[in-house]
Fold these 2 entries.
Entry 1:
Amino acid sequence: MKGTIRLGIIGGGQLGKMLIQSAMDFNIEIHVLDGDAQAPCRPLAHHFTIGNIEGEQTVIDFGQGLDVVTVEIERISVRGLEYLQQKGIKVYPQPHALRIIQDKRLQKQFYAEYQIPTADFVLTENKEEVKKLAQKWLPAVHKIGKGGYDGKGVVVLNSEKDLEKAFDAPAVLEKKVNIAQEISVIVARGIDGQTSVFPPVASVFNPELNLVDYLIAPADISEKIVAEANELAVKIIEKLDMVGLLAVEFFLSESGDLLVNEVAPRPHNSGHHTIKACYTSQFEQHIRAICGLPLGNPTQHTPAAMINLLGEKGYEGVAHYEGMEKALQTDSVFVHLYGKAITKSGRKMGHITVLAPDKNELMQKITQLKDAIKVVAK
Amino acid sequence: MKGTIRLGIIGGGQLGKMLIQSAMDFNIEIHVLDGDAQAPCRPLAHHFTIGNIEGEQTVIDFGQGLDVVTVEIERISVRGLEYLQQKGIKVYPQPHALRIIQDKRLQKQFYAEYQIPTADFVLTENKEEVKKLAQKWLPAVHKIGKGGYDGKGVVVLNSEKDLEKAFDAPAVLEKKVNIAQEISVIVARGIDGQTSVFPPVASVFNPELNLVDYLIAPADISEKIVAEANELAVKIIEKLDMVGLLAVEFFLSESGDLLVNEVAPRPHNSGHHTIKACYTSQFEQHIRAICGLPLGNPTQHTPAAMINLLGEKGYEGVAHYEGMEKALQTDSVFVHLYGKAITKSGRKMGHITVLAPDKNELMQKITQLKDAIKVVAK
């Protein structure tokens, strides 16, 4: 390896923080750009710039002089990244892939173009159009084209009385899928085109907050579905011609169809268990991919569950973690706090990874732990 | 857990760096004291103080106002730590244990006092005394009482012609043991007195540099010896009445006796593989112990080897790592660089962890990898 690599990370949240934890093993000099002066990455980065990640010039100024630039969030200035790429800076994921992924409309068209199975959809420009399409398409899910994240920008339209919730902006109207399971596959692709896939995980959602409640890895699905999901994940990252990590979220329908829901071109919430349960973590894998190093072994050595630690409903203020000591008394329970000073209702404040030799023991531990730790304000 | 813990680490080298990597999961605010402005911890700590770790007042000034103070090196001002402890700051390992361990003479007397098996020894005050004792004690090992580390401060006296190498200072003269294997056990002890032991590892030394060449975990020793080593490690940490990690280095003699060589009250080179091969790493275990959290599961999930990356002989200057990409092409090979800008002959610049399903495959990989990465200056 040549001298120290100067790596820029756009976005300074928990994904960036865990990337830094891994990058520290490779003597990488870390530069972070985020609009929040209190971002989790701030105290850990070599250089931290406060600035608007959606600002073209801000991104350009940040990236100039770095060797590699990556992102831990999609809502960034793609034009800024394009400029940096033209100047010879390595930008992974590449701007062309980010442009597609940033806009759910382009993402769906990309799936259609490459015969990648996904829920039937139609593009809509405004609320009026959705109302006109209602009879044919309901029950449906309406997803805003740009700017949605963490469940925001998505509404379920079960019947005509829900239509007022539809977005009055460019969006995608999708046939609602009868979901048997939600699974996720994280695939990595190196600069040389080599790919590597982590074992699929299954997510269990908290319907109230529309956020992952807990995750089981590996997912309890047939080998046929595993192979299909892996193949699709590799196909998508190859067709996107992208370097880095891509998290592919699937719906497994009640009729047994595997449909791509959406993708994220970065480390992902559904890969946090890899830190403790796989030989190579998703964060190390991303670093290896974007720095031109050989990809690591993604094998999972122990069954795992991951529970998000969300800010308790009704609390806002300086975070306190109740029940930590008790939770850690359970064998093979690991806590990862994100270093966010302020908790808010439903904010991702950390996660717990639980390991167990088999699924039964895992389920028992999850039941014990699900509400063991409360993130409150005092 | 109450609000953020402010943790002081005295010493800013690679052990401190890997402690920080782990502490980041617990929202711990890290303060580091080291005399070297270029110490590996500097860019990663929340607060970095440049100062003499052996200076009593420097240590006091550093520790005031912190919640917990720990060390990643033994050569620090114990008097400074004692003062902090009296002021109510939690100091782990405790000063009374550090005082014994810092001085190899006190350490040996401690073993004798508690009937802990160790090589026969006699205390010597100067070179003249060693010469007088030669006939009875040679072949012997002469260890300086204070200030030795990483093989420095130790000379082997095989015959009378070696006697000029003996230390002309307070030291220990030990009967030379016919060593079949060197093994190491890392034990952790919590504030509540709970203990937990990592599986024993075997070290293979580089005789030229007197530094560990590579390490195999778990060690290939009988269950009886494992039980004996674990029991002794627990006994020592309990008799020292110490909180934190204690690495206990043993000689297994050709006649089958297990003898304590020496101990280190902190994370240790012989525990680096735990990051990748055990459910809980030695660094996380130390953090849990000294922060009053329940200890983690130390079980090793996969056989491992650890190879130190030492600065190549004859090179001094800005470090370059040759062969990294090639080494990482081997399955389940992981690199941990310490972020030291300058390489020197024999300096610990990083380590490689190799995982394999069985010992045979592990040995094959070690043979391939041993000289794969060279740390040179350009």
Entry 2:
Amino acid sequence: MTDVKPTIESVPGFKVAGVHCGLKDSDALDFALIYSDRPCVAAGVFTTNQVKAAPVLVDQERLQKNPTSIRAVAINTKCANACTGQQGIDNALQTARWVSERLGCSEDEVLVMSTGVIGTQLPMDKIRRGVDLAVDALGDNNWEDAARAIMTTDTRPKMASTTLSTLEGKTSQVAGIAKGAGMIAPNMATLLGLIVTDAGITREKLYESLTSAVDFTFNSIVVDGDMSTNDTILMLANGASGTVFEEGFYSGWLCHRLAKDIVQDAEGATKLIRINVYGTSDHKSAKQIANAIATSPLVKTAFYGGDANWGRIIAAVGRSGISVEPEQMALWLKPGDGSSPSEGLLLFLDGMPEPYDEMRASEIMKLENITISLVCGSGEGQATVLTCDLSHDYVSINGHYRT
Amino acid sequence: MTDVKPTIESVPGFKVAGVHCGLKDSDALDFALIYSDRPCVAAGVFTTNQVKAAPVLVDQERLQKNPTSIRAVAINTKCANACTGQQGIDNALQTARWVSERLGCSEDEVLVMSTGVIGTQLPMDKIRRGVDLAVDALGDNNWEDAARAIMTTDTRPKMASTTLSTLEGKTSQVAGIAKGAGMIAPNMATLLGLIVTDAGITREKLYESLTSAVDFTFNSIVVDGDMSTNDTILMLANGASGTVFEEGFYSGWLCHRLAKDIVQDAEGATKLIRINVYGTSDHKSAKQIANAIATSPLVKTAFYGGDANWGRIIAAVGRSGISVEPEQMALWLKPGDGSSPSEGLLLFLDGMPEPYDEMRASEIMKLENITISLVCGSGEGQATVLTCDLSHDYVSINGHYRT
């Protein structure tokens, strides 16, 4: 396992800024800009929601036409620029144009991301101010500002960095920021993430590095099962280190760290729950079962209340759409990340409840870090999904999100 | 529209009881028995969850083998008798056997239903007491006791009755009780319901009457999207009125009343929300879209908070799995049951937000009865789904359900 740090010092060739332009009522940071002093190879994964925000549509087109010379990414909070029609597209394009004018690059070289309330137009006077302030503030070491500036209901910035090595021992830096909090569902690159590296890499290998990591990181976390209109993960490689990764590189550990941070800081979350599913016919089936458990409001509220109501887990498995036989199933509750199997409690075996120590179950359910392990049969398929509980605070936060 | 009453006086030939046998800690009623003095034609619809409770498996088999001479139904709360293996089956059969011994009928003529916590065995000493007490308490007018005895987190009993008429003006009675509260998902006969009539009808017509009503009543309500292991709706016809319904009868109004009661009394619900979807290619697509909206935690919390955050509705539509074009969509928010279209607020049209009066939207969102109308295109498909909001109380109730 590569050592991944929760901070970012600097990544050669990249300058960043996070500023306050008035989108948030307080003086909190609300506009971020990431700039590379040379063209970047770029890759992106986007929401599969049919209702896509304007910045998603703009970025998808630009990455298609222009995947090897991206220079900047501008990100705003508070307004998702989704369900905003042609005016929304025009506003996204104008944002990129302003960035390109100030940075002296082509507007096709600028990507945009937005997050926040759906169905309102971007306040373009504030966006204009954000562009100007951010360009002026660009620096090597402002990653935490940028990570803060993309937060919505996140309570803390999400950053990670690590070092990549070729087989010959040459290195490059890779770093990423992300925001999460709510509207996080299976089968999508969740909410916003931006990963940069000074590695040299082809467009194809970069895309492969991103997509291979996403399936079991950003696409294996669940907060509430709602799928956003804006989810985007971008990856930029500027080659400034001079190290070329001909076979690509592995970004899974970095993505995992960011994805886990998102679940731990999800709206109202008090517990991180790891769901391991084994013994299905294939990975996809295991993931579908894990997602059924992870999206169940009854399972999530039971974890919040610390009640080892495991019958709800089995009921969720039964409606997952994957064929299962209760008589072939086994379910364990384990403390922590579940890596000490001997500490686990066997709750259900061969279609029958197992006698188990309710006191010990209660102790485990009180932890902030809990693992469920479910065996469904003798197949080779397995999957792990991270999720959180459903708390009073989730309801409070989302009952009044716009107000 | 037939006049449906929220009470049940008596249905000729049926005797009922609701008693306390110790399943609930308080002295609340917890065991119900329904008995017919002559054999009944019977029909049932059951959960589609692959993990089926023991009473579901027993009833399915008995209705298959013996659909025209059912004499009694025994129902207990607090224990779902699900995930209980062969012992669970044996306990369900023993319950029916005790009932048959006391009533002097064959054990194959007795059905059983259970609701409550999954994964514990029935306490058979209490069940034995319940059978004895209930047989002793059987009477013509104890329908409210029976309705109370099947409640779990329901706050009030759910009953309805009405009169059926043949074209010639001959009549019969039909009456039903139900319980709901949580673990209620689309595409299932939700939780427990029992409908009885003194009409004469064939097995085929009775089944048709039940299934045709279920699709847009019990299968068109959503509380939390979780699908129970125990859901069962049974319908019994004993022919005591002497009126034979050769063409069957329509039970939709009665079922609608019970289904609506379930949503209004759902766990923690403060609002009844009617979701009308129009303009899809067919009914199934419209229902799938309505269900995506109805199961969205973000939509449900926004309703709880009284926030007209309509972008979440559109985002839910976009991930419903049904092909939609935002540019063809229109969304209205309406007070009450939405039958006065002129009072509605147009929020979204042709892919763009409509300017609307936020004060008026807030007024509507404060009501206990709200309608969303969504047009998706120009198709003929439409569907209505009833749902409720997701409140702090839902989290409280389900965080500590077993304790």
